[in-house]
Amino acid sequence: xxxxxxxxxxxxxxxxxxxxxxxxxxxxxxxxxxxxxxxxxxxxxxxxxxxxxxxxxxxxxxxxxxxxxxxxxxxxxxxxxxxxxxxxxxxxxxxxxxxxxxxxxxxxxxxxxxxxxxxxxxxxxxxxxxxxxxxxxxxxxxxxxxxxxxxxxxxxxxxxxxxxxxxxxxxxxxxxxxxxxxxxxxxxxxxxxxxxxxxxxxxxxxxxxxxxxxxxxxxxxxxxxxxxxxxxxxxxxxxxxxxxxxxxxxxxxxxxxxxxxxxxxxxxxxxxxxxxx
Length: 277
Prior knowledge:
single chain, alpha+beta, Transcription Regulation, Sacy, Chain A, PTS-regulatory domain, PRD, 3 domains, 11 helices
């Protein structure tokens, strides 16, 4: 391995044996090194392969960001892999390092950005949110700065996006879709959700799958369920109002028209909720 660029005493970029550029980290790996010098493999502790389109961003981060933020991001990445048993690319290092560094700087400057979707993120992605709350403790240990719990919501979304590979915008839109539908149900049916109940958990899971269909433009299965639809609708007149409001919200917000079948499955869950209230 030959040095391409030295970022600091502990981080350099190099060309690996497979001819791919990588960032290597290790105590003293870059000490008194210059481009073209050999790297002692024994000093290499971590290797990061970064996609070409992210290299410039990663290099900028390395130039501008203290090393402890990369260490924090890596610890979070390892925690996610261990707890959720998922594979993650090193791209999450870029996203988390950038976000956490900026969040700490904001906190030091007394700038607070509330996360209006924290409740929904916590409900939709419980395991990811728990990891993010743990991450806040790690951040405080490294930086001495206690970030507000709202930041756990933002970190959880980065985690979800990293392993679901649905894009940051779609991850956020899933939460917005869920919050919008839940708000309509609360306002129209005057119900309160028991967040630890099985029915609520099942409904959130259904909304996640619905969001995936919407944002991936999946086509609906053309099944004739008109008789079932009419029978369910007749069970409670409030269903028609609620489904109509949800339909209009999804169409206005995301330019997507819910199919008859998608409305039907929503009705099945709504009936369960209505029976419990």
